[in-house]
């Protein structure tokens, strides 16, 4: 059980535009405006089929959603991340699965 918790903690990413490292703590401490700028940059890159932020361990693309219960942002791998990454965050659910969960299977 403890191993699963540790494996699902992505602690640091690299911003490929600046080559600076951004820790999970720095992400949580960001102002709401700075966080929205970061999310927009990640989304724009994803739409262009590029990575803007990558995991500092495995180099796979990541994004920063908000946790549902706390509202705190966190780093999460995009689909296809290697499960051997010590910071692997699991396989994200598809849009259809999320919608079905949201709307009781509809």
Descriptive keywords:
106 residues, alpha+beta, three-stranded antiparallel beta sheet, two-stranded antiparallel sheet, 4 helices, 5 strands, 14% strand, globular, disordered N terminus
In short:
This protein is an alpha+beta fold and 106 residues long.
Low-confidence stretches: 1-7
**Overall pLDDT:** 84
Please state roughly what percent of the residues sit in beta strands, choosing from under 5%, 5-15%, 15-25%, 25-35%, 35-45% or over 45%.
Answer: 5-15%
Task: Write the element-wise H/E pattern from the N-terminal end onward.
Answer: HEEHHEEEH
Instruction: List the strand order in the largest sheet.
Output: 2-1-3
β-strand number: 5
Residues in helices, as a percent range: 25-40%
**Main structural class:** alpha+beta
Shape: globular
Cα separation of the termini: 33 Å
């Amino acid at each position: 059980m403890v191993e699963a918790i540790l494996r699902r903690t992505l602690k640091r990413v690299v911003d490929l535009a600046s080559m600076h490292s951004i820790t999970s703590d720095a992400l949580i401490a960001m102002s709401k405006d700075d966080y929205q700028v970061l999310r927009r940059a990640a989304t724009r890159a994803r739409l262009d089929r590029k990575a803007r932020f990558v995991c500092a361990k495995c180099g796979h693309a990541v994004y920063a959603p908000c946790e549902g219960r706390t509202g705190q942002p966190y780093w999460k791998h995009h689909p296809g991340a290697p499960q051997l990454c010590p910071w692997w965050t699991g396989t994200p659910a598809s849009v259809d699965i999320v919608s079905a969960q949201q709307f009781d299977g509809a």
